[in-house]
Amino acid sequence: DTKKFSHSHSRSMSSSSSSLLVLGLVAALVLFVAHSEAAYCNECGSASYTDINAACSQYSGWSQECCRCIASHESGGNIHACNKNTDGSLDVGLWQINDRNWSSCSGGSPPCDVASNLACAKKVWAWGGNTWRFWSTCSACGCCSRA
After folding, report:
1. What is the pLDDT along the chain (147 residues), one digit of tens a residue?
2. Is the CB of residue 112 less than 8 Å from the CB of residue 44?
3. Using CA atoms, how far apart are residues 135 and 131, in angstroms rounded to an integer?
4. CA atoms within 13 A on the CB side of 79
5. Residues catalogued as catalytic
6. Which of 68, 90, 119, 122 could disulfide-pair with 99, CB 3.0 to 4.6 Å?
7. In angstroms, rounded to a whole number, what is the distance separating the alpha carbons of residues 101 and 22?
8. What is the pTM assigned to this prediction?
9. What are phi and psi of 145, to 5 degrees?
10. How far is the CA of 24 from the CAs of 27, 28, 120, 126, in angstroms?
11. How far, rounded to the nearest angstrom, does the alpha carbon of residue 62 sit from its chain's CA centroid?
């Protein structure tokens, strides 16, 4: 405990100490949360970019234009992209496949490579009635009701 030299001085020290303590706790919490999220997201490895055109062309059943736009908006071509949603779920890969779908499309593992992410994207696309409606970026691409 610090000794109080004067009433006004101890108040400013106390206020200053409290501010530093709060700032330190906030910083520690931010680092902990960032480390926790990053540790999980790093399962796919560091950023690795692919040719979106080539990835989309591996399946001819959907609009290539929509596929390119969705993948570009979702991941920017980063096959290891990982984003945490406000509900706590995770999206990974080129088409940002939500972790709630992994058990149905990739054996429960994160679909971190183009082939497994594509397989999941095709399933999610089919679940949406062969449309892009389950992707949050479909409106920006004008593809929500398009194949």
Report:
1. 444 333 344 444 455 555 445 444 444 433 333 333 443 566 798 999 999 999 999 999 999 999 999 999 999 999 999 999 899 999 999 999 999 999 999 999 999 999 999 999 999 999 999 999 999 999 999 999 998
2. yes
3. 9
4. 17
5. 74, 91
6. 90
7. 39
8. 0.72
9. -110, 10
10. 5, 6, 42, 48
11. 24
